[in-house]
Design brief:
With 954 residues, the chain is α/β, with parallel strands linked by helices. It folds into five domains: 6-225, tt1808, chain A (Alpha-Beta Complex); 240-426, P-loop containing nucleotide triphosphate hydrolases (Rossmann fold), CATH 3.40.50.300; 470-689, P-loop containing nucleotide triphosphate hydrolases (Rossmann fold); 694-799, Methane Monooxygenase Hydroxylase, Chain G, domain 1; 807-948, no CATH class. The protein is 45% helix and 13% strand.
Length: 954
């Protein structure tokens, strides 16, 4: 059976939406959209507007960007009527979301930079709030996603920008269907399947429409389950498991006084879920307070900041216990605090007597990571003090009898015992299946089970031995340090990401840190190393099952006799001095506040990739999220929840290049890993959580290679393609080959010789792949009025670009060539290799002609390798000036304004607008030519920057 055409899919969907309660309406362009908007707003507000009055409403609606329009949508609007009286109207009913006007239309056309037609649009009260883009069966949904991104740039903002009111996008090829919020900055990774309550994905378009696009449900998603992030000025929509969790929590609080907990795996977005639950709960009349409780000061800061980002001013930071008591006493409805402060508030008489009025009131406590620090007296103190307290817990790794280490009243202390029923579950296997987190690649380094001759088969002297003396021997620690230095680039994709090194104790951390510093001074690496630990005995307090108990930042527990408080504090101060020297800061451990500031600064720099490797004992192993971190080196015994929590620092989603979280174990944690995976999913799930061994990916690569050879038997086959369909098939199969190779390159044992394809052959195909991308880019996505099937294909160039390759790298190769004094064929071979590098990197391809010109015309006259850079700089500046002058002459541009536009583009990374481009012209163009001339100038600005500025400096 042939693929189902898009128009049939479209018509069937419209029929279904009509049957669900969306009234069908025919709207062909913006003028008809505006006319319909007037009538729908009149129906919704039960008022009639004159043309003049509606013009005021329209002017109000035309203001702002997507984020500002989302706020306008949710606010009521006051305007002056023709008779001078004041009138209020609403654009959407948020309290009774079913009581809105629902319509569906299709093929609305809009003209901006290009003329576009949108597939299916759901209108609520006349505003386009849901846009659905369809692709025929067999095509990737990512193409529909990329198509919507084109619309963002080409037409959504045209006219009065009503399509910037879209809150949700839906993309489907009939078989697979996903949704996401209107946020042009996000990647395809932020698109979600809808599911039922048990996490079964609803992928078929007709079933998705029935569950998700039903009028009451879609209105509820828009009015209740989209969050406006104030910090980043973006819209965020809850994923299905977050939606069900909030619904369960609200139902539990409304209808009972029972406790409950949510089991959502680490990395699944518990902060957003808890915020939305808190936001809804605080509006329930019988709820006196909602208190969000965390168990460490760093999480207090992080969570408060995130809550405040979701709704500015919704949370007051609890700076001390006195301030917390004030919040509990006044009208503050939502409070974020630490378990320690809360315990002090209710156990110290001077504080507790001020809170007596809350004893018999319904106070809802939401606990983040409810397995930590809550099996002691504090939890019981809260229950005793707040007689009507209702407790809701969140955890990614609940405590069961298997991994429990404490007892309450003679019974094993478990999450179920403290919080009762699990209200909703979303485990790590669910998250991996949904592409919400990544799998782990676990390699065991040492002579454990690895094959002889492997890069992981290093003698760390611990095979079958687990004594402290051997584990901490200087020889072993140095071997591990050397291994991390050697493998760091491979694991992090040449510093595209960064890494964490977790060790057993503070004194071991000191030995490792000093080794790294010593080797840096010897010139053996240039990694930026950071560290943090509590300067008291608790930092190495880890029970046999992996529970991590950290003191609140800045608080000091009893020191260990052999490694005292003063020593550890002095050591940390010395390391902080190194950090200050590296980053020009001024932190210390002089008091808890300064240490706290250091904590926040190093956390920020790890997230920003300014720190390459952070060495820790327990800190950052829980509650720390950084998508840029992709590798955990581990020289510490962990079990159960401690192990899963630590592994999970590496598996946050960010881009295509990060294909898994890398775990490198210097201890034999295979059994512990299997036990942890079994506890938190099941034994059969191990292959779903841990990626296959390298041999399996070699097979996958060779299978993908067979498909490539069918489409393009030889590299030159690509040159003979006559149709876009042939190019399209080549792009798809070669992209799959790149994805598998990207995973393979992270294995310590990867070698191109193990594949059925030589590296030079892969580079040849890669050049043809980039030729297609370059050709498409030059023709402007198929050209105006022409739609190419390649327009919306994601070429995933990040899988090709190697960060260490730039113009400086090429110059170093040329300098080496110059100093080598190679002659004849050998010299030509080296030049050929350099040209292949130029062809194989996306960023360097646009500089290829100029660099080759430098080689042909200038290299012979340069005396030695040291002079190559200076000679190239002279050549490059000359070519850049000539190109600048040529563009200015060809387009009749004002040179001063042209240079200012280039500078502004470099500073902001924002493409010049059409109106800005036209202002560069010395002579005003004809009205009919403005559009084409403006676009041409913009393209030339972009090309000039790409060729002469971007990637030139290393």
């Amino acid at each position: 059976m042939s693929s189902q055409p898009e128009y049939i899919l479209e018509q069937k969907l419209i029929e279904q939406l009509h049957a669900l309660g969306h009234k069908a309406v025919k709207i062909s362009d913006e003028s008809e959209l505006i006319k319909n908007l007037k009538s729908q707003l009149e129906i919704h507000n039960k008022k009639k507007f004159s043309e003049k009055e509606f013009e005021k409403i329209l002017n109000h609606l035309s203001k702002g960007n997507v984020f500002e329009k989302a706020k306008i949508l949710r606010d009521r609007f006051q305007f002056t009527k023709d008779d001078g009286t004041s009138e209020w109207i609403e654009f959407i009913n948020q309290d009774h979301w079913c009581q809105n006007q629902f319509q569906v239309t299709n093929q609305i056309s809009q003209e901006g930079e290009y003329k576009n037609r949108y597939d299916v649009t759901v209108l609520i009260n006349g505003l386009p709030l849901v846009q659905i883009e369809l692709k025929r069966r067999g095509l990737e949904m990512k193409e529909a996603f990329n198509q919507i991104n084109r619309y963002h740039h080409q037409s959504f903002t045209s006219g009065i920008g009503l399509f910037n009111y879209v809150q949700l996008f839906v993309i489907s090829n009939g078989v697979n269907t996903k949704y996401y919020s209107n946020n042009a900055k996000q990647s395809f990774k932020q698109t979600f399947f809808w599911s039922d309550e048990h996490n079964n994905n609803i992928t078929q378009l007709d079933k998705f429409a029935q569950a998700f696009l039903e009028p009451c449900h879609i209105a509820k998603m828009i009015t209740k389950y989209i969050v406006l992030n104030q910090t980043y000025k973006i819209l965020m929509v809850l994923r299905p498991y977050q939606y069900y969790a909030v619904e369960k929590i609200v139902e539990r609080v409304r209808n009972s006084d029972n406790n409950g907990f949510i089991w959502h795996t680490t990395g699944s977005g518990k902060t957003l879920t808890s915020f939305k639950a808190s936001q809804i709960l605080k509006e329930i009349p019988k709820v006196e307070k909602v208190v969000f409780v965390v168990d460490r000061k760093d999480l207090d800061y992080q969570t408060q900041k995130e809550f405040d980002a979701f709704e500015k001013g919704s949370v007051d930071a609890t700076e001390n216990t006195k301030h917390l008591v004030k919040q509990l006493s006044d009208n503050t409805k939502l409070i974020v605090t630490t378990l320690q402060k809360l315990n002090t508030a209710i156990t110290k008489e001077k504080h507790g007597k001020k809170l007596v009025h809350l004893k018999d009131k319904k106070v809802v406590f939401i606990f983040d990571e409810c397995h930590r620090s809550q099996f002691g007296e504090t939890h019981q103190n809260i229950k005793r003090y707040f007689e009507k307290a209702q407790m809701i817990g969140f955890t990614g790794t609940p405590i069961s009898e298997t991994n429990s280490v404490g007892k309450i009243e003679g019974q094993a202390a478990t999450t179920n015992m403290l919080f009762g029923e699990c209200l909703h579950k979303y485990v790590i296997t669910d998250a991996i299946r949904d592409d919400n987190v990544l799998k782990f690649s676990v390699e065991y380094v040492g002579r454990y089970k690895e094959k002889e001759g492997s890069n992981t088969y290093i003698d760390t002297e611990v095979e079958g031995i687990d004594t402290q003396e051997l584990l901490e021997s200087p020889k072993r620690l140095e071997k591990i340090t050397d291994y991390i230095i050697a493998e760091y680039g491979r694991k992090t994709h040449q510093k595209t990401f960064n890494a964490m090194f977790c060790v057993s104790r503070i004194d071991v951390l000191q030995k490792y840190y000093d080794l790294f510093q010593k080797k840096k001074e010897e010139g053996k690496h240039n990694l930026k190393i950071g560290t943090i630990f509590s300067y008291g005995g608790n930092e190495d307090n880890e029970d046999a099952n992996g529970i991590i108990e950290e003191v609140e930042l800045g608080m000091v527990a009893e020191p260990r006799a052999e490694y005292g408080f003063n020593h550890s504090r002095n050591v940390l101060d010395r390391y902080i001095c190194n950090y200050n020297e590296m980053f020009g800061s001024n932190y210390s451990t002089k008091d808890s506040q300064d240490f706290y500031r250091y904590y926040n600064d190093i956390a920020k720099r790890v997230r920003n990739k300014e720190v390459d490797l952070i060495i820790v004992v327990n800190m950052f192993l829980t509650g720390f999220d950084s998508p840029q971190l992709n590798t955990l080196f581990l020289d510490k015994n962990l079990k159960y929840h401690g192990l899963i929590q630590a592994f999970s620092r590496t598996n946050r989603i960010i881009g295509e290049k990060k294909s898994q979280g890398n775990i490198v174990c210097f201890r034999n944690l295979k059994s512990a890993t299997d036990d942890a995976v079994t506890l938190f999913s099941n034994k059969e799930s191990i292959t779903e959580i841990i990626i296959q061994p390298i041999e399996d990916y070699i097979e996958l690569f060779n299978a993908a290679l067979l498909k490539l050879k069918i489409v393009a038997p030889e590299i030159g086959s690509v040159d003979h393609y006559q149709t876009e369909q042939e190019k399209f098939e080549f792009v798809q199969v070669f992209r799959e080959l790149m994805r598998v190779l990207n995973i393979l390159k992270s294995f310590a044992d990867f070698n191109f010789a193990d594949l059925e394809m030589q590296e030079f052959e892969f580079d040849g195909y890669k050049s043809k792949y980039l030729d297609i991308w370059t050709s498409l880019k030059k023709t402007g996505e198929g050209g105006e009025g022409k739609v190419s099937i390649l327009d919306d294909v994601d070429f995933e160039l990040e899988l090709i670009h190697r960060d260490e390759i730039n113009v400086s790298y090429i110059l170093s190769l040329l300098a080496n060539l110059k100093d080598s004094n190679l002659k004849g064929d050998k010299r030509e071979q080296k030049i050929k290799e350099i040209r292949e590098i130029l062809s194989g990197d996306a960023q360097l391809r646009n500089k290829k002609e100029l660099i080759e010109k430098f080689i042909e015309e200038n290299l012979a006259s340069i005396s030695d390798g040291d002079s190559v850079t200076d000679g190239f700089e002279t050549f490059w500046n000359k070519e850049k000036t000539a190109a600048f002058e040529k563009i200015a002459l060809e387009e009749s541009l004002n040179k001063v304004k042209f240079q200012e536009t280039i500078n502004q583009f470099l500073f902001t990374s924002k493409t010049p607008k059409l109106s800005e481009a036209l202002q560069l012209l010395e002579v005003k163009p004809k009205l009919t030519e403005r559009n084409n001339i403006g676009k041409r100038i913009i393209q030339k600005v972009q090309d000039f920057v790409e060729v002469f500025i971007e990637g030139v400096e290393g």
